[in-house]
Design brief:
The chain is of the alpha/beta class and 343 residues long. The chain has one domain: 3-Layer(aba) Sandwich (Protocatechuate 4,5-dioxygenase, Chain B), CATH 3.40.830. The protein is built from 10 helices and 12 strands. The strands form 2 sheets. Strands 2, 3, 4, 7, 8, 9, 10, 11 and 12 form a 9-stranded mixed β-sheet that branches. The longest helix is centred in the first third of the chain and has 21 residues.
Length: 343
């Protein structure tokens, strides 16, 4: 496991769950864009957030990429763009802990190839988004919510700063645990989204938030938007979750095995959870996720839904759905869904 340095959270899953080489990472994203080109261009509306899966990119990267690209192509913005974010001041040390940010060895990306994927030939407006709030983490109902309040997170495409002002306001208002890059957990639910965020929102900061699957999730989602409004910044939000983990590998096989199991997961268990997300029913999301084991991070999704509803989103749009069995057939498999929230 890669060890985080002061002020910088190391990428723990690069090189295994997704490429660690900048060029290969970019090539993978461009491949995902080609795969989702028609679907991305067919979408209409403004999007303030979405639900993304967090398995290795081989299994679900295309869905996560498509959702984030769609938000970046038509983000819902409540106010005029803010000036570029300045680096958050860090505690004084003999050595500048942010020096590595100022001399990032990863060269700036060239003109974003995403432009050819914009609907109606429009230019991407992602540079107007100040921060991307990522709700995630594998938690139990009584787990303590948390957020990373300073520093930055390493990606193959360059480091992404945490929006310290927003993260700090969230932590203070909701009295949740404040983590540094050293103490924030190693979380695939959040890290797997970061290269996409760096690619599509190159000037945005992030706010990673761990949310338990309980009624706390709804208040956290609304609270994040209130904090952003008070600070006068534009945000988009992501809820990171995979769906039913089925089979002996996960100790969950209520529908037996074979085609019956596949049909039960895709047409029944995952479908009911997807319906709750499309209806933006935050309570049903947590209830179904816990009772039927259909969402591994139901709290994250509930928070995202509550946030976009407060921002004015009116409906969910299904971007795509897949199961790991499609690419790697086996008795155990996982579902993946991509959802967008439209205004």
């Amino acid at each position: 496991m890669k060890k985080s340095a002061y002020g910088i959270k190391k990428a723990a899953f690069s090189g295994s769950w997704y490429p660690d080489d900048p060029e290969e990472c970019t090539k993978s994203i461009e491949k995902f864009l080609r795969e989702g080109d028609r679907r991305i261009k067919s979408l209409n509306g403004l999007f303030s957030g979405g639900v993304v899966p967090h398995a290795g990119w081989f299994f679900s990267g295309s869905i996560a990429c498509g959702v984030i690209a769609s938000i970046a192509s038509s983000p819902f913005l409540k106010r005029a763009p803010m000036p570029p974010l300045k680096e958050d001041p860090m505690p004084s040390l003999k050595e500048d802990p942010m020096a590595s940010l100022k001399a990032d060895p990863v060269p700036p990306l060239k003109a974003c190839p995403m432009r050819s994927f914009m609907p109606h030939g429009e230019e991407p407006s992602a540079e107007k988004v100040d921060a991307v709030v990522i709700f995630g983490m594998h938690m139990h109902p009584h787990s303590q919510p948390c957020t990373m309040v300073n520093g930055c997170w390493e990606t193959p495409l360059g480091k992404i700063p945490v929006h310290g002002a927003l993260a700090g306001a969230i932590a203070k208002q909701m009295e949740i645990r404040q983590d540094s890059p050293l103490t924030f957990p190693e979380e695939n639910t959040i890290e797997l989204q970061l290269p996409f965020i760096k690619y599509f929102f190159p000037d945005a900061a992030i706010v990673p938030v761990g949310v338990p699957p309980s009624n706390v999730a709804e208040s956290m989602g609304r609270g994040v938007v209130s904090c952003a409004d008070e600070l006068g910044i534009n945000i988009v939000v992501l809820g990171s979750t995979d769906m039913t983990h089925y089979g002996d590998s996960f100790g969950f096989s209520p529908a037996g095995s074979g085609n019956d199991a596949l049909k039960w997961v895709t047409d029944h268990n995952d479908r009911k959870a997807i319906q709750a997300m499309l209806e933006m029913d935050a309570g049903a999301i947590v209830s179904h996720g816990l009772t039927n084991r259909s969402l591994c991070c139901a709290g994250a999704v509930s928070a995202a839904v509550s946030a976009v509803k407060k921002m004015g989103a009116v409906k969910g749009v299904e971007f795509d759905y897949a199961i790991s069995h499609d690419k790697s057939p086996g008795k155990s498999f996982v579902g993946y869904s991509g959802i967008l929230f439209a205004h």
